[in-house]
Automatic annotation (TrEMBL):
Domain of life: Bacteria
The protein, known as: 3-oxoacyl-[acyl-carrier protein] reductase
UniProt family annotation: Belongs to the short-chain dehydrogenases/reductases (SDR) family.
Gene3D superfamilies given in the database record: NAD(P)-binding Rossmann-like Domain
Gene Ontology annotations of biological process type: fatty acid elongation
InterPro entries per record: NAD(P)-bd_dom_sf, SDR_fam
E.C. designation(s): 1.1.1.100
Amino acid sequence: MTDQPAPLAVVTGAAGGIGRAVTVALTGSGHRVLGVDVEPAGDPAAYASLVADVAVPGQVERLFARIHERYGQPTVLVNNAGVYHARDFLDYDPKTYAQVLDVNLGAAFFCTQAFARALVDAGRPGAVVNVASISGQFGSPDAAYGASKGACIALTRSLGRALAEHRIRVNAVAPGLVDTPMADRIPVERRNDYRARIPVGRFGSPAEIAAAVAWLAGPESSYVTASVLDVNGGLH
């Protein structure tokens, strides 16, 4: 009797603060984690680190083909890749706007498509967790970011319903303010205002977001799909 390999998970944006924490959490729950990022720096907690720009559909196709060839069939996908520019609406140009939508929405769309197609062909169940944002629920001074995360939430609810018949669950976490390098781009005055309005009185940690992601990716949430889990310290 041979031992079965640990289940395989793919995490995009794995070099960032939340991505690294998700890698640690999923590794701790028994997954082999493939960390994907546009940056070549790998996460020591990852089973393997891969470089790809998931905002480019052609690279997504090649990425998942390479994963299947080298590592096997992933059954968990965490769409965490994201960009935030803290830019005023009047200062946006078409190229930057397109980048925000391509990374924060397009990457989740095409990564989930490649992931789900293989699972459907194999007749296997799976779980997708999208990392959205409170900005997608209530808006953001960075209008492109807020719009992209709102669309990510709509995509989550749509795919959760569309893929349910294939036993593929799709959910999202919607973090509030989290202590990461991305959050450091928020102007200090705005950061202080946000902190003052958070009922628990502090920003979240990447590990707290990762714990929610790991729960949605695991068997304990088997009856949860097309849902968004708020992890925001009560900020509304």
